[in-house]
UniProtKB/TrEMBL annotation:
It holds the Pfam family ELO. It is a multi-pass membrane protein. The lineage of its organism: Eukaryota, Metazoa, Ecdysozoa, Nematoda, Chromadorea. It comes from Caenorhabditis remanei. It is found in: Membrane. The chain crosses the membrane at residues 46-65, 77-95, 125-146, 153-173, 179-197, 217-235, 247-267. The keyword Electron transport does not apply. One of its GO terms (molecular function) is fatty acid elongase activity. InterPro entries: ELO_CS (IPR030457), ELO_fam (IPR002076). This is Uncharacterized protein.
Amino acid sequence: MAQHPLVQRLLDVKFDTKRFVALAAHGGKNFPDAEGRKFFADHFDVTIQASILYMVVVFGTKWFMRNRQPFQLTVPLNIWNFLLAAFSIAGAIKMTPEFFGTITNKGLVASYCKVFDFTKGENGYWVWLFMASKLFELADTVFLVLRKRPLMFLHWYHHILTMIYAWFSHPLTPGFNRYGIYLNFVVHAFMYSYYFLRSMKIRVPGAIAQAITSLQILQFIISCAVLAHLGYLMHFTNANCDFDPSVFKFAVFMDTTYLALFINFFLQSYVFRGGKDKYKADPQKKKKDQ
């Protein structure tokens, strides 16, 4: 019996590990941007396959753990949080000169209208690493369910959609991706550093968690504002921007839903349900979405 073409396409997905490792190991000022973008275009189906596998593993593991004691996973979790914190800090540092240099030299509007040299050289290498990292960050949720921490819709929805958007948008390289990538690096630098300290059993003031959630909300307020103005420019002024309609629509849907969900998370965690006093009473609930 013949399989549906879409099913066959997903089953036939192959990940070119050798090609991936060569790009990841390249680095430097001569990073092959065109080849890096082509890698994601050629492997986009991997994100759909990974999303399906992710859902099966996460919810299957959650069901498997329902009557079992949680795993501590202290050492693996320490290592994982340290690696992601270090990666995010390095990415934020590496991309800061390009981000603010573009705003200063080209203007605020041009910084999200045009790509310029955003994906070139060493900066392009870190953009590529950022996109690739969204596949590997799915492992966050495995730690969560094995430790029997609360699994929120926001957590797994955010992981899946960000990965799919990253691999879909990078081959088309819209100018507004400069904001999403840089802001996410900065927020994750703080967030994973916080997770690392917590996993090391280092006491961190409860206000820090609230501040990080506030940063996440600010990130999506800025992203939504950028997209709103860009939409106005493209549809009412015929501006000449590096712009792809399909990526733009995807970004608008993604960022507006993230903004709504993170605001809801903030309100439920810190306003309606007693804020950090609730977390003192139930420390397990302190582990929130990234």
